[in-house]
Design goal:
The chain is an alpha/beta fold and 213 residues long. The protein is built from 8 helices and 7 strands.
């Protein structure tokens, strides 16, 4: 039995190494890291990603598939929920670093299975909603930055104290109902920055765009 960390990174400030460090910091012992880099999570199905496809070949009954959040496992609600159920049917336990979610197919109790399946559906829908919100915030941020570009000379303002990856992590954790204080502590972003991202995601993205981050 082994624990495989699947890391999907799509921007230049995201790295598989960072996600590995985050997993180890949460107490997970990782046997293997499978990483897709430069792959969009909102346009490419898990089975269509070069390394995502490997997961279907290497994972066996009793193994654990670890991901930062369930959105790593597909491009939309249907893809995420189908993949989680596929791995559970094969006896693979799916776990998340954020919020410590656990999905497995061990239980045979109908009520427990119903609750588990409802939770899978909710998490998958939440991931898709967050992906759509992130895309919209990015579009709004770019528009905001362009609208405030006077004669091509951008006033950048204060450099953001968070990276694009941290912004995405904050948004995902806020969607999961995690408190501002817990988010700040977990990913080393100030409470003020977390509150700013929650209150005005468009300008938070715009700040990254102005600084080319």
């Amino acid at each position: 039995m082994k624990t495989v960390l699947y890391a999907r990174v799509s921007t230049k400030d995201q790295t598989a190494a960072h996600q590995l460090t985050q997993a180890q910091g949460a107490g997970f012992a990782i046997d293997e890291v499978v990483s897709d880099e430069g792959v969009s999570g909102v346009t490419t199905r898990l089975a269509d990603r070069p390394q995502g496809r490997r997961l279907f070949d290497i994972l066996r009954e009793g193994d654990t598939l670890l991901v930062r959040w369930v959105d790593r496992l597909g491009r939309d609600y249907e893809d995420v929920s189908d993949n989680i159920r596929h791995f559970m049917r094969r006896g693979v336990v799916v776990r998340t670093i954020i919020n410590g979610m656990v999905f497995d197919g061990a239980t045979q109790d109908p009520m427990q299975r119903a609750v588990r399946d409802a939770l899978i559906g909710f998490m998958a829908a939440l991931s898709q909603a967050q992906a759509e919100a992130t895309k919209e915030a990015r579009r709004a941020g770019i528009a905001y930055a362009k609208a405030n570009d006077t004669d091509g000379a951008k006033f950048k303002g204060r450099k953001p104290s968070y990276s694009r990856q941290q912004l995405e992590q904050v948004q995902a954790m806020l969607s999961a109902g995690i408190s501002v204080t817990e988010i700040s502590r977990a990913i080393s972003v100030s409470r003020q920055s977390v509150i700013r991202i929650r209150t005005d995601p468009a300008s938070s993205v715009a700040a990254l765009e102005r600084w080319g981050l």
